[in-house]
Amino acid sequence: MINYEKYRTIYDLPDGFFEGWPNPPSKEKHRELLEKSYLSLVALDGTAIVGFLNVISDGVLSCYIPLLEVLPAYRKQGIGKELMKRAVHALSEFYMIDLSCDEDLRPFYESLGMKRTLGMMHRNYEKQSGK
Q: Which residues form the N-acetyltransferase domain (predicted)?
C-alpha cells in the first residue's frame, strides 16, 4: 500500500529518479531540493520514497511545481495523480499554481483540471545536477 506524506529526512531515497536526465542530481542534491522546497510531498512504499512532488512559492500568491517524479516500477498506478491532487488541495489558498511540462504530459495535467498556457524557459543543462 502506498502512503502519502510531507517529506521528512527519515525516508529512504532509492536510485531511479530523474530517468533520462543527462546530468541528474545526486542523492544529496535530491534531498536538499526536497528539504528546501516550500512543500515536498512523497509517495511511500514502506519507508522508501517511490514518488515525489515539490513546490516553490512566494508564500503569498503564487506556487510553481518544478518536479513530479515517480520511479519507473511504480508508474501507471495513480501515484503521480494522487501527489498532484494532494498538492493542489494543500495549495488551494493561492491565486496561482503553475507548472511546465513536455507536450506528451499535457493530457495528464489537463485530466487534473490544469489549463494549457504559453510558457517560456531557459535551461543550463550543465547545471542540471545542482549548483
A: 1-131
